Amino acid sequence: MKSFGVHLFFLLFLAAIASVTVQAFTGTYGINYGRIANNILSPDDVVTLLRAAKIKNVRIYDFDQSVLKAFSGTGLELVVGLPNENLRDVSANADHAMNWVKDNVLAYLPDTHIRGIAIGNEVLGSSDEFSGFLLGAVKNVYNALDKLKLSHLVQITTAHSQAVFADSFPPSSCVFKDNVVQYMKPLLEFFSQIGSPFCLNAYPFLAYMSNKDQIDINYALFLPTKGADDPKTKLHYDNLLDAQIDAAYAALEDAGYGKMEVIVTETGWASHGDENEAAATTNNARTYNYNLRKRLAKMKGTPLRPKSVLKVYVFAIFNENLKPGPTSERNFGLFKPDGSISYDIGFHGFKSSSADSSLLSLKVQGFLPPLTYILTFCRSVSSILRQNKAYL
């Protein structure tokens, strides 16, 4: 009788889970773990760094086994990526999609908390090299998850750049580009059926760099400014990120999917750049990311969707020394390659001091001898008081 009761409870529990729309992002603040570098911390050390920073939601751009193993048993929630170059194969063959899901998702569950799969990144809006394969890959991966009884645990998404929009200012005027609509509409239709959000990579830094004469940098950095008004909606915007997000909502509404949630899968500010990237400074990067944290802590939405609490993945954990392009591309990290902070927005670096490093290591292991604890604690407090740079 007892075993029957336990079995019945388990079935009811599964039914309750299945009735709830899966959410890959359960907090408001996440981070992107880019690894185009040859000098960054090991995945195990990255886990230590993230747990100390209390960042739970993490997004990677591939399905690296060393990362998936390092995240096992940590409680951190991970979105893995199916890279653009894999879309053709997975789109063309449902068996390939099934094998990919088995090898890179099912094999690591439940110990590694894989909560989402990002199918490609910024596929639409630039070249059409992979555009025709995106929807097929999305459907095949979802169907594989569904057959494996995982579709209630793992959410399917894809992230878009602002290149998918024809015009984003004022926000209410935003629509999808004509050459994007043919791919975007069926994708949105499928996402609306399975409850997936619209994922946007939104960079006020890039918008400012392209429109310095028209955009006040304070508006881009969440600093006091006169802001901007939308003449159609009569809504006022005091920062550029909110305006970019509401532009996405306007495009979705124009396409017939106004109820779809928008999640920011990338945003950040470069701390160093080339001569023509004068806005890429440590001070601006610190200001943007510190003010972004404050804005997210308020647990509020945008002017157009005030009740939809904003969720953001910051770009990125590290500066990535092997990324191509301008210098700014290699300097978006909140942390330097050794885990020390790039600038202070309230996180403690992995190697900010010997005392902090020792304390961090022992805290993660869950053990700290009493005398060591007292000495380390005193040194840490003394160091903090001397620095007097607390941002939290």
Automatic annotation (TrEMBL):
Family matches, as Gene3D superfamilies: Glycosidases
Presence of keyword Magnesium: no
Molecular function (Gene Ontology), one example: glucan endo-1,3-beta-D-glucosidase activity
Reactions it catalyzes: Hydrolysis of (1->3)-beta-D-glucosidic linkages in (1->3)-beta-D-glucans
Keyword list, A-Z: Glycosidase, Hydrolase, Signal
Signal peptide: 1-24
Recorded coiled-coil stretches: none
Keyword Transmembrane helix appears in the UniProt entry: no
InterPro entries referenced in this protein's UniProt entry, alphabetically: GH (IPR017853), Glyco_hydro_17 (IPR000490), Glyco_hydro_17_plant (IPR044965)
Family, similarity comment: Belongs to the glycosyl hydrolase 17 family.
Name listed for the protein in its UniProt record: glucan endo-1,3-beta-D-glucosidase
